[in-house]
Write a structure and sequence with these properties.
The protein is of the alpha+beta class. The protein is built from 5 helices and 6 strands, in the order H-H-H-E-H-E-E-E-H-E-E. A two-stranded parallel sheet has the order 1-4. A two-stranded antiparallel ribbon has the order 2-3. A two-stranded antiparallel ribbon has the order 5-6. Strand 2 and strand 3 form a beta hairpin. Helix 1 crosses helix 2. The longest helix is centred in the N-terminal third of the chain and has 22 residues. It starts with 8 loop residues before the first helix and ends in a 6-residue tail after the last strand.
Length: about 160
Amino acid sequence: MSTPVAPSDQDRETAARVYQAGEELKSAIGHRIIGLDDVVEQVLNTVFTKSHALLEGVPGLAKTLLLSTTADLLDLKFSRIQFTPDLMPTDVTGSEYLLADPQTGERRFRFAKGPVFANIVLADEINRAPPKTQAAMMEAMEESQVTSLGKSFPLEEPFI
C-alpha cells in the first residue's frame, strides 16, 4: 500500500482556478438557461473530462441551447445532427468528391468534412438512424476519427 501524497501549493492553485472557471461558466450559462443547474454542472463535467453524455428529456427543455451556449462560451465549434431513418453515414462523417484542376486537368479526391467535425456535437435521436450510420457515429465517439474510403480522418480535440 502506498502512502498518499499531499497536494502541492501549485496543485491547490490549479484546482482553485479550474473551480473558479467552472463557476464563471455556470453563471454565464445561467443567464440563458434557468432552472437546469444540475444538468449544466453535469454537461460541464463532461466537457472538462472530454467524455460523452446522454441527455434525455422532452422537446423544449433547452438541450440544444445548453450545448450551443457552452460551446460558444468556450469558443468551441458546435454542431447538431438530427438522426433520421434515411440518414446515411456520409451525411454524418462527410464524403470524398472528385476535384478537377482546371489548369492542369489533374483529378484527385478531396474529403469534405461532415457535421461530426465539431468540438461539441449534439447527436439527436441517434436510435432512429440505420445501423451503419450509428456505427459511423460510434467510431467517431470511440476513436475520435472517421473513416472514408479506407482513410482515417482525426477529429479535432476536444470531441464531445
